[in-house]
Amino acid sequence: MGFNYAKEKKLFDLEWKILQREYEDAGMSPSAIEAMHSYDWDMFLSRRTYENHTQPLPDSFLNGEVEGQRSKLFIKFASLSATFDEGDFSSRYAWINTISDTALSVKLATLSTKDLELLTFIALEGHEQCELAWKWGCSQSAISQRFKKIKNFLK
Question: In Å, what is the CA distance from 44 to each residue of 13, 23, 78, 122?
């Protein structure tokens, strides 16, 4: 859901009337009150910008959707999505062969099995780093560092 400017502005103004009275009763100078209002207004505008430029990913499935039920986000950016069936792969890491960027696929092929397993778990299967840490019996920071090392290698 987007940012409802009129509603949020009304709430902001209402809150600021109350705050202004409180600040005046506390003995603050008008210039200090104005400075606080200006700061809060900038934060309001910043939040508005953020809310207007972000939206959560929809919970709907990528495949087998009825056209009318498909998320607008998926319809708008259909070219950015990819689908595949894990049954089409001959091995667990055969997804590397589907990458069209030759340099990237060559670099991926040189990674160790443990690194490929980490990428498969996180990127393809959507596991969290803390899940892998528990599964592999190490800390989440160790997983994070290994993942960062892989990302830097692939850049």
Answer: 11, 19, 33, 35
Nearest to 149, CA basis, from 105, 114, 100, 124: 114
Q: What is the pTM of this model?
A: 0.44
Helix or strand run (H / E) with residue 118: helix 113-119
End-to-end CA distance of the chain: 35
Task: Determine the Cα–Cα distance for residues 129 and 132; give it in Å rounded to an integer.
Answer: 5
Q: What is the mean pLDDT of residues 25-34?
A: 94
Sign of CA dihedral 136, 137, 141, 142: negative
pLDDT in tens, 56-100: 665 555 555 555 566 666 667 766 666 666 666 667 777 777 788
In a 3-state reduction of DSSP, which class is residue 83? coil
- Residue 108: other Cβ atoms inside 10 A: 20
Alpha-carbon distances, residue 137 vs 39, 68, 123 (angstroms)? 47, 45, 20
Give the distance, in angstroms, between the CA of residue 22 and the centroid of all CA atoms in the same chain: 39
HSE, CB side, 13 Å, CA atoms: give it for residue 45: 6
